Amino acid sequence: AQSVSQHNHHVILSEAASLELGCNYSYGGTVNLFWYVQYPGQHLQLLLKYFSGDPLVKGIKGFEAEFIKSKFSFNLRKPSVQWSDTAEYFCAVGADGLTFGKGTHLIIQP
Amino acid sequence: DSGVTQTPKHLITATGQRVTLRCSPRSGDLSVYWYQQSLDQGLQFLIQYYNGEERAKGNILERFSAQQFPDLHSELNLSSLELGDSALYFCASSIGQGMNTEAFFGQGTRLTVV
User: What is the dihedral of CA A93, A96, A97, A103, to 10 degrees?
Assistant: First the structure.
């Protein structure tokens, strides 16, 4: 069975800072990779996804992620964060079911 | 609005009781997934149904069961409830049965066991 590990449980940044959230997965076969975001009081929404092709994928709201197969990683990045990016971020692996990491709580300070 | 509807939004019940959570997927979606979200365990995948059939199983307890009906709505049944079952239960739906399609999430049902 697959598993997902997110390195940072809580991250606090100032506006305009750059963001990188780590995600590593464990699975022996082909996987599909996702980042979801959960804004306070809302449901999970898809930020971006990787199925195949270009390992650098761009999502909504200026987010991007890079799939590095050799490192089993799919880190999320954003060059300049905004206060409205405050949310919980989940990395997920689609293989046998859709498995999520424990999430990273991101707080952006104005 | 994701198009996925979950009822009820909140549920408070006593230990030992049984409850049923309901999920209506987005129009046209054939897969339904159930997740349990708690502070200590994060977002745990419970089970997936595709077009009425069980497709994948995660960390679902034997006290829990689910089904997907011909109209594609799904129910998650939780029985012999314990305090530790208190959590947010999410339902998600997607078009396909594989994991290469986007899943859309409902607002969740917050279950409190007292």
Answer: -30
Q: Please name the member of B42, B99, B105 whose beta carbon is closest to the beta carbon of A44.
A: B105
Q: What is the CA radius of gyration of chain B?
A: 13
Residues contacting residue B90 through CB under 8 Å, at least 6 positions apart: A43, A44, B6, B34, B35, B36, B37, B43, B105, B106, B108
pLDDT digits (tens, 9 = 90+) for B28-76: 999 999 999 987 778 888 999 999 999 988 889 999 999 999 999 999 9
Q: Do A98 and B99 touch (CB under 8 A)?
A: yes
SS3 content of chain A, % helix, strand, coil (to 5): 10, 55, 35
The sign of the dihedral angle between the CA atoms of B52, B57, B60, B63 is: positive
The span from the CA of A99 to the CA of A92, in Å, is: 5
